[in-house]
Design brief:
single chain, 258 residues, 9 helices, 16% strand, disordered N terminus
Length: 258
C-alpha cells in the first residue's frame, strides 16, 4: 500500500514538473522575442524567469530551503560544493544565477538548448587553451551584471566530504580581479524517508529521469545554504582554492551512506 501511494505521488508530481518547466521555457522564448536586441535586458529577464522556474520546481519536489548568511549581490563569482543536479535548481531559485558547465552539456538534447538560452558558459576542461576564451566570457558575464556559479570540485561527489577544489576553476576570478564568494550546500531528509545520499545524491550512474521519479516518491527534503559573510581574494590560485575549500567544508555536514 505504501509503495502504491509513493508511486501515485510520483506519477502526479512528475508531469506537473514537466508542465511547469514547459510553461516557463515558453515564457523564456516569448520574452526573448522582445529582448533579443538588448543583451542587458535579456539577461535581466532571464534572471527573473530562472528564479520563477526554480520557485515552482522547489515547491513541486517538496524542497524546503533554509538560507544562512548574506546572499551575494550581482555581479559575483561564487563557488560551491556539488552533490546533485538539484544544486543547480536550488541555486537558480535562490539567486537567479548562471553557471559554468562542462562543454559536452551544450550538445545534450533539450538540456543543451535550455542551458544555451540561459547564457550558461561551457568549458572544455581537456583543453587548457580554452581557458582564455572562457575567461573572456566570464569577464563579459560579470560586466552584464550576472552572478556566476562554479562547482569547484568539478564533479558531483558522493557526499562523504567536500572534494578538493580545482584551482583552474579559480583562476578566471583572479584574472578578472574578482573576489570569490562561497556557499555550502547541505541536504537532509525527514526521519521517515531514505537517507539523503540515497534519494538526493546523484553520484551513481543513474539516468536523470529515473533519479527524479524516485525522488518524487517521497514528500520532500530540506536544503540548507550557508553563504560566506565576505568573499575571499588572492593572487595564487592554489592558495585561494585551498582557502575556499576550507571555508566551504567547515559548514558541510557529510551525508551518511549506511
Amino acid at each position: 500500500m505504501k509503495y502504491r501511494m509513493e508511486t501515485l505521488q510520483s506519477g502526479i508530481r512528475f508531469p506537473l514538473l514537466l508542465l511547469w518547466t514547459a510553461l516557463t521555457w515558453f515564457l523564456r522564448i516569448f520574452v526573448g522575442l522582445f529582448t533579443r536586441f538588448s543583451e542587458v535586458h535579456d539577461r535581466r529577464w532571464r534572471r527573473w524567469i530562472v528564479r520563477v522556474w526554480g520557485w515552482g520546481f522547489k515547491r513541486l519536489v517538496g524542497m524546503r530551503v533554509v538560507i544562512v548568511g548574506p546572499l551575494p549581490k550581482p555581479p559575483y563569482y561564487l563557488v560551491a560544493n556539488h552533490l546533485s543536479y538539484l544544486d543547480i535548481f536550488l541555486l537558480s531559485a535562490v539567486l537567479g544565477c548562471t553557471f559554468v558547465a562542462r562543454g559536452d552539456v551544450k550538445h545534450w538534447p533539450v538540456v543543451g538548448w535550455v542551458a544555451r538560452s540561459l547564457h550558461v558558459l561551457f568549458i572544455d576542461r581537456e583543453q587548457r587553451q580554452d581557458a582564455v576564451r572562457v575567461n573572456d566570457l566570464i569577464a563579459h558575464t560579470l560586466e552584464q551584471g550576472d552572478g556566476l556559479v562554479v562547482f569547484a570540485e568539478s564533479r558531483i561527489s558522493r557526499g562523504l566530504a567536500v572534494a578538493p577544489f580545482k584551482s583552474a576553476l579559480i583562476q578566471p576570478a583572479i584574472d578578472n580581479g574578482v573576489p570569490i564568494h562561497y556557499a555550502t550546500i547541505n541536504y537532509e531528509t525527514p526521519g521517515t524517508a531514505p537517507l539523503a545520499s540515497h534519494i538526493i545524491g546523484w553520484w551513481q550512474p543513474e539516468p536523470f529521469f529515473a533519479h527524479m521519479r524516485r525522488l518524487l516518491r517521497y514528500p520532500g527534503f530540506t536544503a540548507t545554504l550557508y553563504f560566506g559573510e565576505e568573499p575571499i581574494s588572492g593572487t595564487n590560485r592554489k592558495v585561494l582554492a585551498a582557502a575556499l575549500h576550507e571555508a566551504v567544508a567547515e559548514r558541510y555536514v557529510p551525508m551518511p551512506h549506511a
